[in-house]
Specification:
- The protein is α+β, with helices and mostly antiparallel strands.
- The chain is 38% helix and 19% strand.
- The protein contains six helices and seven strands.
- Strand 6 and strand 7 form a beta hairpin.
- The termini are far apart.
């Protein structure tokens, strides 16, 4: 398969004149959105990130973390995220609710990083997990990461399908699996793709934010004053 950032490289042309296309990570159907705005999160999004995690039902928490963390444990996990060291990406809906989140955690060895993802139940089936995985691969390779690690429950077939389609080697140990994906070196194309994607996602976020503010303002004006 190709990697994010390789799209600027010359593609071979088949006998029928059509250029070969990059197979989507996860082997998902071609009707999924061709582009999804994925925004990098920062310290000021910590509250929205916690709200996303708390909205995950028990089974989703179990599949994401390998156990079922309580609300307080999720709060501590969220508080412990170092946005200077790690990278956290999110997909916002039009109400600025985080419906999908990926955490690219830095490891002691600068050449490795660990990937984790969660998607709210109502946002499943849209290829968001695969999109976030692609995005994490792109950011990781542009920062010199050579190996991406994905720890997953062996029963999490959706996650394992994504990483296997990307070419990862999966080692299974009972109920747990560890996937290792070797990443190619960064390229001019990978840096351009990240830059353009980040800028467009920022514009998308600002437009949504202004729409939310406008809606809230309009609702305030239409609300009759409370009786005295």
């Amino acid at each position: 398969m190709g990697f994010p950032g390789d799209f600027l490289r010359t593609r071979p042309v088949g006998h029928d004149g059509d250029r070969h296309h990059r197979t989507p990570v996860g082997g998902e159907p071609s009707h999924r959105p061709r582009w999804v705005p994925i925004r990098s999160l920062s310290e000021r999004h910590r509250g929205r990130l916690l709200a996303h995690l708390l909205a995950l039902p028990e089974h989703d928490r179990y599949m994401r973390f390998g156990y079922t963390p309580s609300d307080s444990q999720l709060s501590r996990y969220c508080d412990a995220i170092d946005f200077e060291r790690d990278e956290v990406f999110g997909i916002f809906n039009r109400r600025l609710v985080l419906i999908a989140v990926a955490h690219l955690a830095g490891l002691p060895t600068a050449t490795e990083a660990e990937f984790g993802v969660s998607v709210l139940p109502r946002a499943r089936g849209r290829g968001y997990g695969s999109r976030l995985f692609d995005h994490a691969v792109l950011h990781a390779r542009n920062r010199g990461v050579e190996t991406l690690l994905i720890q997953s429950l062996s029963e999490n077939t959706a996650m394992l399908r994504i990483v296997r389609a990307a070419g990862a080697m999966v080692e299974r140990d009972g109920g747990e699996s560890l996937a290792r994906l070797r990443l190619p070196a960064d390229s001019l194309g990978s840096h351009i793709e990240e830059l353009v994607g980040d800028q467009v996602a920022e514009i998308d976020y600002r437009l949504k934010r202004e729409a939310v503010r406008f809606t809230a303002s309009a609702q305030d004006k239409s609300t009759p004053p409370a009786p005295k």
